[in-house]
């Protein structure tokens, strides 16, 4: 049976590839982001079962407004939206902007939507999957701290949803190419440096993260909850 799937940040990068996996399986997929043109182009490419929804998920008013468009029953919710801004400068004001911004972009985007649609998650088979990062366990300042707080929240969420038979898990990627995340920062030298930190000697692909998400969303993964699935070529273990 076709499922109702919501993918935040589904217009680009990892989210786009996740949306593609579900759309190819015949599911109805809502992709959420702030840029209408990006979402519409993605939906056009992915096919008629994919619907764009423009919403800044860090803004409670926009999340509330989005509730009228989101499906009444959600089988799979994928909290993938997130980003890491750089170039805030020095001093306490810049520090505050960076830490607040990373928390808003990576934590509140997931928490505001999930808590708002909680009652729409399908009992017995619903899935919530949130994208963390290797940065949650290996540094990266305010961004890593924000992703790490998703881990605590996910544990809480899994405990709350468990009695309804709904699972909540995280996928934590290492460096993944083919997204807007790094912008021009991910040049050839940086790719080599990051590849050398993994056990496989390469960085990841968006489809590899999408495959991990798709597995956690499958009926076969129904006894897995509160977990973090690392997808980083062995970088966490190191050489
Ligand atoms: N690429 C990596 O190496 C890597 C590694 C570890 C974890 N991650 C995580 O993977 C996830 C996907 O990132 P990506 O690499 O695919 O980068 P990306 O291409 O920049 O994707 C991020 C998506 O999130 C959306 N988004 C950001 N803020 C939003 C907001 N406030 N409301 C709604 N949508 C928002 C963006 O669309 P709009 O700008 O149009 O809103 C964009 O489509 C992120 O959570 C990131 O932290 C990435």
TrEMBL record:
Its EC number is 1.1.1.100. GO terms for biological process: fatty acid elongation. Signal peptide: none annotated. Residues 3-179 form the Ketoreductase domain. It comes from the Bacteria. It is an enzyme of class 1 (oxidoreductase). InterPro entries: KR_dom, NAD(P)-bd_dom_sf, SDR_fam. Keywords: Oxidoreductase. The keyword Hydrolase does not apply. One of its GO terms (molecular function) is 3-oxoacyl-[acyl-carrier-protein] reductase (NADPH) activity. Belongs to the short-chain dehydrogenases/reductases (SDR) family. PANTHER family: 3-OXOACYL-[ACYL-CARRIER-PROTEIN] REDUCTASE, CHLOROPLASTIC, SHORT-CHAIN DEHYDROGENASES/REDUCTASES FAMILY MEMBER. This is 3-oxoacyl-[acyl-carrier protein] reductase. The lineage of its organism: Bacteria, Bacillati, Actinomycetota, Actinomycetes, Kitasatosporales.
């Amino acid at each position: 049976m076709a499922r109702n799937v919501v993918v935040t940040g589904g217009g680009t990068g990892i989210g786009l590839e996740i949306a593609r996996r579900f759309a190819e399986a015949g599911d109805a997929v809502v992709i959420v982001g702030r840029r209408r043109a990006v979402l519409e182009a993605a939906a056009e490419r992915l096919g008629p079962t994919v619907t764009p929804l423009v919403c800044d998920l860090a803004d409670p008013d926009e999340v509330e407004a989005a509730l009228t468009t989101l499906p009444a029953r959600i089988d799979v919710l994928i909290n993938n939206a997130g980003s890491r801004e750089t170039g805030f400068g020095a001093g306490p004001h810049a520090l505050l902007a960076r830490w607040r911004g990373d928390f808003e972009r990576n934590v509140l985007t997931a928490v505001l939507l999930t808590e708002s649609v909680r009652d729409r998650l399908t009992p017995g088979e619903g899935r919530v999957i949130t994208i963390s990062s290797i940065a949650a366990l290996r540094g990266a300042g305010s961004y890593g701290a924000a992703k790490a707080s998703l881990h605590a929240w996910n544990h809480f969420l899994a405990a709350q949803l468990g009695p309804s038979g709904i699972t909540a898990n995280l996928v934590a990627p290492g460096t993944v190419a083919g997204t807007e995340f790094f912008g021009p920062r991910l040049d050839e030298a940086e790719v080599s440096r990051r590849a050398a930190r993994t056990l496989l000697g390469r960085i990841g692909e968006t489809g590899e993260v999408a495959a991990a998400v798709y597995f956690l969303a499958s009926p076969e993964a129904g006894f897995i909850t509160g977990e973090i699935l690392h997808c980083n070529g062995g970088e966490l273990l190191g050489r």
